[in-house]
Write a structure and sequence with these properties.
alpha/beta; Rossmann fold; nine-stranded mixed beta sheet; globular
Length: about 350
């Protein structure tokens, strides 16, 4: 009997300890779940919150580098005082170079005396009345940008049809997935970037003597940036675009990227091997002018003098100040591209 009683006491003690341990484990689990829930709630949700969490303004050193790289003057004097609206909102991926681009565009217009700049990240700026104050809208790395209603969409298209200009930098080519007409206006939509931001790539001038390529002095070049390829279904193509700059597939550093197994999936869209990957272009669209360049992912791009001159000339074309032939490439006659030099 004594032995049985002792065993019962021991069993009860173990049961009590096990119950306490189980309760403690449950409490820990609840605490962990609560911590995760709180962390999730703290994650930035709105555009303003996400932008504040992601973006840092350029440092003093970076600002100095941008200012030093800017052209001292514009290629042509403006026909009248110009004002541009730089729109810099993103709905998905936020490029950390956005504020560098904003600073660059503002200083570019001021230093070249080419335009005055306003900045906006709210769709409410797209009204007929407000856009009447501007000569061009620049979409600066506006990933997945979308407009809220037809009134805003009509306002922008009315702006273009009135003879005004549009310029797009980098992720402006990763936008307007819910608005086919605007996607067509820009000319291309993102379909991956085998040429990543960490690589230095070779670029050719498709049209070496074109005014918007004057910055490159008739020579191809190397530059570190991220380069998109475009969805075949929505890419406007060289029947509609005047292609200015493309990747130089004659350089192994560029073409051999396509041998990587990760990028074989794109062969169904483009076929095997080297292909044309346009980077900068201009076009006329429904009475207005459009300039686009895929350069501008990296912060360092905004300290490259040749690229900034290219941007300045492209924006002045969009403004209507710099005359440039926008005849689509396939209709412009034969051109001899200028390839990139051998990599040093």
């Amino acid at each position: 009997m004594k032995k049985t009683a002792i065993l019962l006491i021991i069993a009860a003690a173990f049961a009590s300890l096990s119950g306490a341990a189980l309760a403690q484990q449950k409490d820990k689990g609840k605490a962990k779940a609560n911590t995760k829930a709180k962390a999730k709630k703290k994650q930035p949700q709105t555009w303003k919150e996400r932008a504040a969490a992601r973006l840092k303004p350029p440092t003093t050193q970076q600002k100095n580098a941008i200012r030093q790289a800017l052209p001292g003057k514009s290629t042509v004097q403006p026909k009248k005082d110009r004002r541009v609206l730089v729109f810099w909102r993103s709905e998905t991926f936020i490029h950390t170079s956005i504020l560098h681009g904003n600073y660059c565009l503002g200083e570019m217009g001021r230093k070249a005396r080419a335009w005055k700049t306003d900045f906006a990240d709210e769709y409410s700026v797209f009204t007929k009345e407000n856009l009447a104050n501007y000569d061009a809208v620049i979409f600066n790395n506006t990933t997945s940008v979308t407009f809220e209603n037809d009134a805003q969409r009509d306002a922008l298209m009315g702006f273009v049809k009135s003879g005004k200009g549009i310029a797009g930098i980098h992720a402006a080519g990763d936008s307007f997935y819910k608005w086919k007409l605007a996607a067509s206006m820009i000319g291309g939509q993102f379909n991956g970037h085998p040429w990543t931001a960490g690589g230095t790539w070779a670029f050719k001038l498709n049209d070496p003597t074109h005014p918007l390529n004057k910055a490159f002095a008739g020579k191809g070049f190397w530059h570190k940036d991220e380069i998109y390829q475009y969805k075949p279904a929505t890419y406007a193509g060289d029947d509609n675009l005047r292609i200015l700059v493309s990747l130089d597939m004659s350089q192994d550093a560029v073409s051999k990227v396509l041998d990587n197994e990760r990028f074989k999936r794109y062969e169904k869209d483009y076929g095997k091997g080297p292909r044309e990957v346009p980077v900068s272009w201009l076009r006329e669209f429904q009475g207005g002018r459009v300039f686009f360049s895929n350069l501008g992912h990296n912060e360092s791009t905004y300290a490259n003098p040749a690229v900034l001159k290219h941007f300045l000339d492209g924006i002045q074309y969009a403004l209507g100040d710099l005359s440039a032939d926008a005849t689509p490439t396939t209709k412009a006659g034969k051109m001899r591209p200028a390839l990139a030099p051998a990599k040093k």
